[in-house]
């Protein structure tokens, strides 16, 4: 046809080869495009570790007498690939659950200061510092979801922060009465052109780095959905070479909107 719309994607395969995907976008609207992409990306993310596990199983089955050391090494790789698939499946389940609960009312009262303390001990990292204001009232929210939000943000700050550098979690009320939580790292930072896209599913600034750190590419998409369910707002401020601060702004308890 005359108005065919092709989109090209290049990704790197094992051994440095490039794979080029050509996708025919003709007639797709933005929402459909996103859904099609999501299914394609999720399948691809699962297929890669699965292919690797199958390859190692076949090799081990062929070489029944393979020496102990080789076998141990293969098993370790298979374990890591399986864990990667597990993290991905868990994140996919979280994402669909949060989306399904989008319109369910928030019936809980959550003390964020207490929750931040809990998440800190679950992560058991010495480098996580807390700065919790004393006068912050509880927010209306879903405790499990807010815990996941904190895990994802603090997890990113640890993953992308400089090794051993502090990560600071702050909680305070702003002058308009909104509740704010911020997570600051001293990491490599994020170039500004990437910031608007970080909450897209599977969007990564540095693919290799995210994967090496065990990232699924879904963490901030999950955060965005949780923030939306809580009628909040997400702000990401970053300076390359210095670090990143991600701030979640939530309406004060009893309010359904963020006040200016
Ligand atoms: P991932 O599982 O890859 O960490 P996320 O959705 O949590 O996925 O984040 C998307 C991308 O945003 C990451 O791959 C990374 O490039 C970037 N990113 C997120 N948080 C930070 C941070 N604190 N510092 C630098 N880059 C970050």
UniProtKB/TrEMBL annotation:
E.C. numbers: 2.7.13.3
User: What keyword terms does UniProt attach to this protein?
Assistant: ATP-binding, Kinase, Nucleotide-binding, Phosphoprotein, Transferase, Two-component regulatory system
What reaction does this enzyme carry out catalytically? ATP + protein L-histidine = ADP + protein N-phospho-L-histidine
One GO molecular-function entry: ATP binding
Where is each Histidine kinase domain found?
41-254
* Entry keyword Transferase: yes
What is this protein's record name? histidine kinase
Species of provenance: Sphingomonas oligophenolica
